[in-house]
Amino acid sequence: MNVGVGVNRRDSSMRTVLFCIALLLVLFHSNAFAEDAWTYITEIEGQEIGNASSLATEPDGSIWMVSGYSVVYRYFQNSWSIDLDHFIDISPRKVTVTPNGIVWFMCRSGILVKYDGNNWTRYNYSTPTVIFRDIGVDAQENVWLATANAGLLKFNGNDWIQFTYQTGLARNSITNISVNRNGEIWVMYESLYDIDKPTHVN
After folding, report:
1. How far apart (Å, rounded) are the C-alpha atoms in residues 189 and 198?
2. CA separation for the pair 118, 127 (Å, rounded)
3. Torsion region of 168: left, alpha or beta (phi above 0 gives left; psi -120 to 50 gives alpha)
4. R_g of the chain, CA atoms, integer Å
5. What CA–CA distance (Å, rounded) separates 74 from 34?
């Protein structure tokens, strides 16, 4: 009986060793494949990208990218191109795509640019000193903007609605914004050490 038990233990140990070896081989192969699958892009049409500050994808798979140099790139039909026509006198910072495929570009100088697949439209916020920092869209196609000095802005394509410290925000300087699937708007501030108000707005 003792001999049988010893054999079973050796068989079990051998199976464990073989399983571990097989697992290591699988992990190595997966890692090697993953490395081979990545393509590193540092320049497009001879222009260095630098830091990519924003990236968004359309429903058809097209990709829009804004670089740290405020240059707009598009990946469409398996090739990259640079948009040299629609952002000549403004500085695009972020890009996002609505559920219906409308592309919105946030520009630091209080300007929004919309692309609907055919037409480009520019919208100016009424106060030119407002600095946009981040952009998000909700299921109703409203555009939400985090600002450095004017709280939170909501734009429905025609009208602007402003949310500030006086209407419930913790402060008027917002760094980032995110819209979740439930329609909640989450905002992030630089510092809240001396503030007790909630850090999100429904």
Report:
1. 11
2. 28
3. left
4. 25
5. 25
**pLDDT at res. 180:** 86
3-state secondary structure of 174: strand
Please count the other Cβ atoms lying within 10 Å of the Cβ belonging to residue 170: 19
Whole-Å CA distances, 89 to 100, 109, 141, 200: 28, 10, 26, 34
Asked if residues 185 and 179 have their Cβ atoms less than 8 Å apart, the reply is: yes
Dist. CA 156–CA 68, nearest whole Å: 28
Per-residue pLDDT at 196: 46
Q: Where are the beta strands (DSSP E) in the chain?
A: 43-44, 47-48, 52-57, 63-67, 72-76, 79-83, 92-97, 103-107, 111-115, 120-124, 132-137, 143-147, 152-155, 160-163, 174-179, 185-189, 200-201
- Encode pLDDT of 68-120 as tens digits: 888 999 999 889 999 989 998 899 999 999 989 999 999 977 899 999 999 99
The pTM (predicted TM-score) of the whole model is 0.75
pLDDT < 50 positions in the chain: 1-3, 5, 7, 32, 193-199, 202
